[in-house]
Design goal:
Length: 209
């Protein structure tokens, strides 16, 4: 009888958690749908992760074999491999998630063994948990979302179950933003060409004497 009560309690807890996850993802999708540019998407993405309890979050866009930091929350000032541009040849959890196309959530021992310089940055900040999640748009990896937290083991399976679909939502929003920016650039080119075509050619209207 007691076992049955425990089972019912656990089932109710899982149902409640599933409801909270669905609500969180529905809200994140709504927020991202209002993002018109790549920078808008990046800023909304890291704000969502902070709202969900991460102490630090960053979004990197992939361009020309390098990861470019586009948005960050939860840290002040430059901090080595967490900032600026990172070539894919550098070994970090962020570059690895982009190259592998899957989430990379190393534990403390793996961080120290495989990414020692990166681990020191995290230790200086007091972050014991770190994860990187690939972002895909149009069938190709186009960036990465990262999260760091002070408690060890913060990235539970439940939180990963939120961050993986969030990364997919970010990819959709990013693809939409890139398309919009391309359309805007195309319209600008058309206006410039139209103005050039309407401009009189130098010397036009003069006659040799």
């Amino acid at each position: 009888e007691r076992s049955a009560a425990v089972d019912r309690s656990e089932l109710a807890g899982r149902v409640e958690l599933a409801g909270l996850q669905a609500t969180s993802l529905r809200e994140s999708a709504e927020q991202l749908s209002r993002s018109a540019s790549v920078d808008d998407v990046a800023e909304v993405a890291v704000a969502i992760v902070r709202k969900w309890g991460g102490d630090h979050s960053a979004f990197f866009a992939l361009a020309d074999g390098r990861l470019q930091l586009r948005a960050i929350l939860g840290v002040e000032g430059p901090s080595g491999p967490l900032h600026g541009e990172t070539p894919l040849t550098l070994e970090t959890p962020v570059t690895e998630t982009v190259k592998l196309g899957r989430a990379v959530v190393p534990d403390a021992a793996e961080l120290e063994e495989r990414f020692p310089s990166f681990a020191r940055v995290l230790q200086d900040r007091g972050w014991r948990t770190y994860g990187a999640f690939p972002v895909e748009a149009g069938g190709a990896i186009c960036g990465a979302l990262t999260v760091a937290a002070t408690p060890e083991g913060w990235l539970t399976n439940d939180r990963r179950d939120l961050l993986v679909p969030l990364s997919a939502q970010i990819g959709v929003a990013l693809g939409r933003a890139l398309l919009y920016e391309e359309m805007q650039a195309g319209r600008l080119r058309e206006r410039v060409l139209a103005r050039l075509a309407a401009k009189p050619v130098s010397g036009e209207g003069t006659h040799a004497v």
